[in-house]
Design brief:
This protein is mainly β. It has helices at residues 10-21, 41-54, 67-77, 179-183, 260-264, 340-346, 368-371, and strands at 7-8, 26-27, 33-34, 60-61, 83-85, 94-97, 102-107, 114-120, 125-130, 137-140, 143-146, 149-156, 161-169, 187-190, 196-200, 204-210, 213-219, 226-227, 232-236, 244-248, 268-277, 286-291, 294-296, 298-303, 306-311, 317-319, 327-336, 404-407, 410-418. Strands 6, 7, 9, 10, 13, 14, 15, 18, 22, 26 and 29 form an eleven-stranded antiparallel beta sheet that branches. It has a six-stranded antiparallel beta sheet with strand order 20-19-21-27-24-25, with no helix packed on it.
């Protein structure tokens, strides 16, 4: 595909001409000018002849912009798309290759859990889902290949991303149809010995076809998801301007609080809640995920005093199975937001920095308190600012941004089932 090619050298045009004569696919408008200030009439004539010949080839195309035009071009030349995902209008992805791997990256830019019914221009290899956030790798057992493509179906949570890696040979591996995943909210994956197992978070019945044989499989006994409802204790820190603990009857956005200090708060607040789990949640073939719902912006999670981990991007979820105990548990979540709300609020307070002038411009020399590594003058005093910047990132009246643990907070159980006799 030609770009920035309005003016090219004769040598470059000759290479494109050679490529076109060999049947190469070229997309772009004709080249307009021959580069150089001292071109001879013969060189100009040769340039024009080659350009005319290039754009006379049946494999050269001027305008290919719409999906329909691209589809027609691919159909005309018998090409496969590198990646296609059904029912997706705008697809942004990356694909790179190593000596023996194809590595794709896709993400769910919607606010809903979504099925990705995908076709990759790779064959003969097992597709794997690599989660860069947790380091986990799932080898997908439900896929099929035809006409140079591998068809895979998988689901992603809102705003979740994943690498799809084609690595191990698929030869000799038991394989299920991806239709099973399209029709049922279930994961079909390989274990380390390439035996098939199913992972699901809700009871269901599967109709399975493998090696020409059909069988029914019941995925039952999966604990229902548990929403942690009710009140939370939320403690704010003095160092960020608010030394107080509140009872939140329900999770809410700090920017919408009736308390102006909570609306302005930028820093870390600690949420605490007791909850109870039953013993059947702790079975060995199950994994319990703590899904925090929406978080603005990051969360450090503790259960029963033990640190589980930190999550800073969607989905805000962590495996908490090793930390749970039958009966009562204590959940602690330390949430940090950005400093936007404090910056916006401070724009309406007294500026004691001696840096910004009334005309909106700053002084040419940094104030003494700054160069001497001293605190902002009047820092922490009522009616004065707590922040200082050398650039105006915000202005008075800007809307406050989402902050805090917004939820809903849920415990979701995924249970594994081995497929026997295959």
């Amino acid at each position: 595909m030609l770009k920035n090619h309005d003016t090219l050298s004769l040598a470059s045009v000759a290479k494109i001409h050679q490529f076109a004569k060999q049947g190469g696919i070229i997309i772009g408008e004709p080249i307009q000018h021959l580069a150089g200030r001292n071109n001879t009439p013969e060189q100009q004539q040769k340039f024009e002849q080659m350009v005319k010949a290039i754009w006379a080839q049946p494999t050269t195309h001027k305008n290919v912009k719409t999906v329909k035009q691209w589809q027609a071009l691919y159909d005309q030349h018998g090409f496969n798309f590198d990646l296609r995902i059904k029912n997706t209008k705008d697809l942004f992805y990356t694909h790179r290759q190593t000596a023996n791997q194809d590595i794709y990256f896709v993400y769910n830019d919607s606010g809903e859990r979504k099925l990705f019914d995908a076709s990759f221009e790779v064959t003969g290899k097992v597709p794997e889902l690599w989660d860069a956030n947790t380091g986990k790798i799932k080898k997908i057992a439900a896929f099929n290949s035809d006409q140079g493509l591998t068809h895979v179906a998988f689901r992603l949570e809102p705003n979740e991303s994943v690498f799809i890696v084609f690595n191990d040979s698929a030869k000799g591996k038991p394989v299920l149809s991806p239709q099973l995943v399209r029709d049922n909210d279930v994961q079909a994956v390989y274990d380390e010995q390439f035996a098939i197992k199913f992972v699901a978070n809700a009871n269901q019945n599967l109709a399975i076809e493998l090696n020409g044989k059909r069988q029914q499989m019941d995925l039952m006994g999966i604990p229902a998801e548990q929403t942690l409802e009710g009140s939370w204790q939320v403690s704010f820190k003095e160092e960020y301007g608010l030394d107080q603990t509140f009872t939140f009857d329900e999770l809410s956005n700090w920017k919408d609080s009736p308390n102006p200090e909570i609306r302005a708060y930028s820093g870390i607040a600690t949420y605490t809640k007791n909850f109870t789990v039953s013993a059947d949640l702790l079975a060995r073939n199950q994994e319990v995920t703590l899904d925090l719902g929406k978080v603005s912006d990051s969360a450090q999670v503790f259960i029963n005093g033990q640190e589980v981990g930190t999550t800073w991007l969607a989905p805000f979820a962590l495996n908490v199975s090793p930390y749970l105990q039958a009966g009562e548990n204590v959940l602690t979540v330390k949430v940090a937001n950005s400093w936007s709300n404090r910056l916006i609020t401070d724009e309406d307070l007294i500026d004691s920095s001696n840096y910004w002038q009334e005309n909106g411009k700053h002084v040419p020399i940094m104030p003494d308190w700054y160069t001497n590594n001293q605190p902002l003058p009047n820092f922490g005093k009522k009616g004065h600012r707590r922040t200082f910047t050398t650039f105006k990132f915000v202005k008075s009246g800007d809307p406050l941004v989402d902050s805090g643990l917004l939820g809903p907070v849920r415990l979701v159980t995924n249970k594994s089932f081995k497929l026997a006799n295959h």
